């Protein structure tokens, strides 16, 4: 992510949990999940709670299976994540513009 000029922070603690990769400027958290995240009900519920608490703080959580973090897939995966981040930032800017417009209106 750094080579793509993404200001990523590794293992950032948000007051509730450690996030694998956080991009605060885009309000996006990235969690890299191993296979046990799908097969262990306790882990899956913990992941859902983590996603919920991040969402309450205005963050979207991307859950990336670790099968995409391989030499063969890493560049394509990173490219899609960067595209997602750009879209997220565009949406945040649009939302802020809309909020500013509404505040001026009322």
From TrEMBL:
UniProt superkingdom: Bacteria
Residue stretches making up the DUF559 domain: 19-85
User: What Pfam families does this protein's entry cite?
Assistant: DUF559
Q: What is this protein's record name?
A: DUF559 domain-containing protein
Q: Which organism is it from?
A: Leptospira koniambonensis
């Amino acid at each position: 992510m750094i080579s793509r000029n993404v200001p990523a922070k590794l293992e950032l603690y948000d007051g509730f949990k450690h996030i694998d990769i956080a991009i605060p400027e885009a309000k996006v958290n990235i969690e890299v999940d191993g296979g046990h995240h799908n097969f262990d009900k306790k882990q899956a519920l913990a992941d859902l709670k983590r996603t919920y608490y991040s969402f309450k703080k205005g963050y979207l959580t991307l859950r990336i299976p670790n099968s995409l973090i391989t030499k063969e897939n890493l560049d394509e995966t990173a490219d899609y994540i960067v595209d997602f981040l750009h879209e997220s930032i565009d949406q945040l800017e649009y939302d802020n513009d809309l909020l500013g417009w509404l505040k001026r209106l009322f």
